[in-house]
Design brief:
Elements (H helix, E strand, L loop, with lengths): L1 E11 L4 H10 L9 E10 L7 E3 L1 H11 L3 E3 L9 E13 L2 E11 L5 H8 L5 E13 L18 E2 L2 E2 L2 E10 L10 E4 L18 E8 L10
Parallel strand pairs: 3-10
Antiparallel strand pairs: 1-2, 1-7, 1-12, 2-6, 4-5, 5-6, 7-10, 8-9, 11-12
């Protein structure tokens, strides 16, 4: 199994009546619009990223199902005290020939959360990291599944004029959009925003930051991936 951590971008979004219904499906009491702050996160897409990887559209569609109800935490330390927001809806959106997984999230307006809300609204907090586990990582050159065994092709290298990339698929888990700090490496990635996230601008600008870092599963150290 391949565990992948990718970067994402945060954008403010105003809740609709339909959003409030979905949010209240996650809460134990009925929340009012003035009690919450909502934002969207463009978590992943079908573009090739800095690691020369891309998600397949079926992968994004499955991740949309897996992400609903997942928590947002303030850093990579998994504890209940670090949970500040929750994903209440997720969908795959199209734009510019790219499919994007967009997560809709909410958090309580409270004294403790206000500094984070202020930072999002000011554009200071934009990037976050998101994690997924996938079962397949297919080489674009030979079709080998690098999660099951190695092939001779290295992502980012050209073979007979064709760039080697890896298509990620068959997700088994979506880890809550992890922390506000984004992994330090990454290439620009598509974003979606509607004062969304992912990434205060217009819905799905062309590209912004996407950082990427992989956490390899055991036994894959010798693989070129």
């Amino acid at each position: 199994m391949e565990n992948i951590t990718k970067g994402a971008v945060v954008l403010k979004a105003a809740p609709t009546a339909a959003d409030m219904g979905l949010i209240n499906a996650q809460s134990l009491r009925e929340l009012k619009e003035e009690e919450i702050f909502t934002f969207r996160v463009a978590a992943a897409d079908t573009q090739v990223d800095r690691d020369f990887e891309r998600f397949s559209r079926p992968c994004l569609e499955k991740l949309a199902e897996l992400y609903v109800g997942k928590p947002f935490i303030t850093d990579h330390r998994w504890s209940s005290s670090n949970q500040v927001a929750r994903v209440y809806a997720a969908a795959v959106e199209e734009g510019g020939g790219v499919s994007r997984l967009v997560l809709s999230c909410y958090m309580l307006r409270s004294a403790a959360n206000q500094p984070t809300i202020d930072a999002i609204e000011a554009g200071i907090i934009r990037e976050v990291s998101v994690g997924v586990a996938v079962k397949s990582a297919v080489c674009s050159i030979c079709g080998a599944d690098k999660s099951r065994g190695c092939c001779e092709h290295r992502p980012g290298r050209a073979y007979d004029g064709t760039l080697c990339t890896v298509e990620l698929g068959d997700p088994t888990e979506a880890y809550g959009p992890a922390s506000w700090p984004c992994p330090p490496s990454g290439r620009p990635a598509s974003s979606s925003a509607t004062p969304v996230r992912k990434r205060g601008r217009e819905m799905c600008p062309t590209r912004t930051h996407r950082a990427a870092r992989k956490l390899r599963s055991r036994g894959k150290r010798n693989c070129p991936l």
